[in-house]
Write a structure and sequence with these properties.
Length: 51
């Protein structure tokens, strides 16, 4: 028995469009930190891959 498993349905369509989340700016980090009640350093740790 695996400790965790992931499964799902994957659909494709020739006219579909995909997107990726790009890097965020300092202003977006500060806004997100304010709205979540985190300090900037903690928010930066959570969002490190996006900075």
């Amino acid at each position: 028995m695996p400790a965790a498993a992931v499964s799902g349905f994957y659909f494709a369509h020739p006219e579909s469009h995909y997107f990726a989340i790009s890097k965020i700016g300092r202003d977006q980090l500060e806004d997100w930190a304010r709205r979540t009640g985190m300090d900037i350093d903690e928010a930066a740790r959570w969002l490190a891959p996006l900075l």
